[in-house]
Design brief:
One of its GO terms (cellular component) is glycosylphosphatidylinositol-N-acetylglucosaminyltransferase (GPI-GnT) complex. With 289 residues, the chain is mainly alpha-helical. It contains ten helices and two strands; from the N terminus they run αβαααααααααβ. It is elongated and about 90 Å long.
Amino acid sequence: MVDKQQKRWRKILYEDQSVPDNYVDSSFLDELQKNLHTRKYDYWTVCEQSGEVTQQISSLGLFVVAYVYMENGWLSPHTLFTITTTLTCIGYLLKVYIDHYYQDTTSNRTLLDDIKTALVFAGFSYGLSPVLVSLTETISTDTIYAMTAMMLLGNLVFHHYGANAALVSEALSLNAGLFASVCLASRLHTTWHSFSTVTFSIEIFGLWPMLRRNLRKHIPQTQRWLTFLLMIITSMLLWTFSTVAAIFYITLFLFITFICPAWLVSLQPLKNNIHGPWDEAVIEEKKVS
């Protein structure tokens, strides 16, 4: 009896210790750890990183502004195509320069390959533009706008903000943006309107995020300036036709940029996560050198 009391209980099942399988002694809680993986956030760092979200919201705002301007006749499709194509070429040259300067050339694509891809996209878009103009004639405008709002929201939700989460899907985000552009293009007047809208959507939903990620990776100092520059441009353009939309956008920007980070930082001390021997075992594979 004395030997049994002196024998220390071990957390194993392959040996008979003369106790039930669910028995634990006081040493079971010795491995208890609280808030093991809790991160401490710096407020201004979180504010700066929230720009990844507001930059995408600003991009959606610019896309809507371009549609409203063309719908009201304030902007010709030729002008939109010229401006966006010029900015895309500048952005492409900037990306090539950054990749060359930081020696980040993971792709074997050449300039000729990129030109061929751009011409193929442009050719298909222009060839399908006459179809897009009359694609949704039997659907009411309210339904088209509702579908567009849902697709733009989907683009915002599934966009890649730099976190590897299950919800992230670059393909789904891009397709939602393109679907929204097709819906709006079907409500414009001419083939050039439709072509310019679809082309602009490819540039702002497909190419523009790639350039932003490239800048964030190699020149992170540009993010705060890019965030506020997009905010100023978008709010000014929205103000030209809707004061309510501009105020709503500015309020949303301030809420995401300053209020949400403060909320996140204030909630960190309230965390009370526990870790211990009851957690599921994780097998870690060691690399053999």
